[in-house]
């Protein structure tokens, strides 16, 4: 059709052969049409691109979670929010709803700092877990999610199933300050921890978060068509590792265990790597913590001092 319009506009014969024989001056037009047809045919025959898939990088998620937990701001409040959706809802629709809900929480409910991870439940429906040091009113964020889901229901993208706009209560919360779950402990230990919940340390915050997430990152072979993990910009800018010079290492060496059984050892031709089996002493993180807290405060326009 474009070729016909091109020739009609210039008053030229349609075929390339006719153009060549009509005049030497229009030979270029013949070449243009031939080139156009080859490009058109190439586009018509192009293969559809494969949809990208993602896998959860557990090490990266763990590092971001630890960085968030170690912030001074996380001492005041640290919680996991779990977000559920109607059964058998399509992944594309769930991510669309989840992104709208995140935007609403950032705009109206004070969500600024977070790490979220996607998980597929036994019924095949996606489920999300968010770690944040921002307090969110559970009733308000539940209503916000209910409205987001209901909008998609009205658009015919999914159905409520056994839930509804008024019955939805799929956003749940658990915090280290007010935890309602036992973390691999006896009932007596759990009750004692509830009494001492305001006195938690950095290690306890990290332990709370990593234990919580271990259950939801166990499916290493799970494949997603969307990102299975993301974090806010203030967390993505934080440092998660530290490279020490030989001189600096000598300073920290005195705080490390000499027992080889406390490490997982990886040997290579040029180097040997020692990985802590348990959490290293907090003093190892002193420089990293100071730097990350400064970056976090600067991001939120706070005085780092």
SSE arrangement, N to C: HHHEHHEHEEHEHHEEHHEEH
Q: Tell how many strands the DSSP assignment holds.
A: 9
Distance between the termini: 69 Å
Specify the helix fraction band.
40-55%
Q: How many structural units, i.e. domains?
A: 3
Instruction: State the major sheet.
Output: 5 strands, antiparallel
Determine the structural class based on helices, strands and strand pairing.
alpha+beta
Query: What ranges have pLDDT less than 50 throughout 5 or more consecutive residues?
Result: none
What's the total helix number?
12
Beta-strand percent range: 5-15%
Cα-atom radius of gyration? 29 Å
| Global shape | extended
Spatial strand arrangement across the major sheet: 5-2-4-3-7
Mean pLDDT: 83
